Amino acid sequence: LLPPSALDLLVRLNIEYPMMFRVSSLSDPELATHCGVLEFLAEEGRAYLPSWLHLNEGECVRITYASLPKATYTKLKPQSTDFLAISNPRAVLEVELRKFACLTKGDIIAVEVRYFINTFLTYNDQLLEFLVMEVKPGSAVSIIECDMNVEFDAPEGYVEPNTNAATSSSDATSLPTGAAAEVVGSKTGGGFAAFSGAGHRLDGKSKASSSSLAEMDTTERSLPALTVNTNYTPGNLNFVR
Q1: Count of domains forming the chain
Q2: Are strands 123-136 and 73-78 parallel, antiparallel or unpaired?
């Protein structure tokens, strides 16, 4: 929030919209960042700045108008491994970054993230911080109505898993001696029988046993042989009315 006198001065100037401002420290002018403006409703001589700027209340700063280019690329570094619990971080940041007007290289921004933590529809609301490692095409860019590519660096405190240890442990895993001997014995001693398990009918009825199938085969074989009359000649069929 800025005082109304700042709006009166900016209206007289030939400036670009939306308005962006450079906020710098009076003691160290190189220590600066950028932000937009929400309203011009503050008291004269006062400015209300976002909490993520980490400024002390009553601290004197210099606020100047700045024209920033549209962002095309940014690289963010999460400051906590809680970032890994987010299933779709790009979708979350696409919504949360709409609350920001611009990004400055070296800044740490804070976004509120709500992510799913278990199967009982429980969500965790947490404030996550991201370090702006790189932005293009400049050191400070506007992110309002722009097409920006976002890349994530490894979170702070993240340890890469040891894949070599996992591979060696999986290679060392084997069947128990008794189970292995039983499998080998079933294939070598009694011979291997394919499809030796029991079957089930889809209609729920009991499956025919092997003996009943043998009886059906015997019945079919005992039927009389069919005789074909090859000298048959068609005749007339008369209906009496």
Answers
A1: 2
A2: antiparallel
